[in-house]
Amino acid sequence: MKCPYCGCNESKVVDSRPADEYTVIRRRRECESCSKRFTTYEKVEEMPLVIVKRDDRRELYQRNKIVNGILKACEKRPVSVKDIEDMADNIEKELYNMMEKEINSKKIGEMVMVRLRKLDDVAYVRFASVYKQFKDINTFLEELNKLMNEG
């Protein structure tokens, strides 16, 4: 790390501690040349996720859109806010672990449906009806029959 005082490239770490709720490491360094101390911060670089929509538009990933979709599906259902938050956290973690810069919105919808199906059947059908764009009652009944035959 380059010393801000003399420009030397050699320094040693004299103290390290977590900062900002363990998302940053604060390091106190001492220059090997001039012995002056300075502070640096180390943070994981987050790669921005771009979501590719059905019509090929692209927009930055927004966690709140996943949470809001799940909340709507779970309205008046016995699903806790903690369960919804955990589901959103789990999906977000999986998205970042894919290490892809662009992710199709269809993939996110499928991830939500898989988790909702395990959590609450009614919430699953609600979400699926919007996500799969059910055109009529027959499409809706087909999905219900699949659910009943598997359960």
Question: Could you walk me through the main structural features you see in this protein, from its secondary elements to its overall organization?
Answer:
The chain is an alpha+beta fold and 151 residues long. The chain has 2 domains: 11-43; 50-150. It contains 5 helices and 6 strands. The protein has helices spanning 63-73, 81-97, 105-119, 121-131, 137-150, and strands spanning 11-19, 24-31, 37-43, 50-52, 58-60, 102-104. Helix 2 packs antiparallel against helix 3 and helix 4 (121-131) runs antiparallel to helix 5 (137-150). The radius of gyration is 24 Å and the shape is elongated.
List the helices and strands and how they pair.
Elements: E1 11-19, E2 24-31, E3 37-43, E4 50-52, E5 58-60, H1 63-73, H2 81-97, E6 102-104, H3 105-119, H4 121-131, H5 137-150
Parallel strand pairs: 4-6
Antiparallel strand pairs: 1-2, 2-3, 4-5
Helix pairs in contact: 1-2, 1-4, 2-3, 3-4, 4-5
Distance between the termini: 59 Å
Shape: elongated
Which percent bin holds the helix content? 40-55%
Low-pLDDT stretches are none
Number of helices: 5
What is the structural class? alpha+beta
Number of individual domains: 2
Binned strand content:
15-25%
| Total count of strands | 6
Spatial order of strands in the largest sheet: 1-2-3
Main pleated sheet: 3 strands, antiparallel
Report a brief summary of the structure.
This protein is α+β, with helices and mostly antiparallel strands and 151 residues long.
What brief labels describe this structure?
151 residues; alpha+beta; 2 domains; 3-stranded antiparallel beta sheet; 3-stranded mixed beta sheet; 6 strands; 22% strand
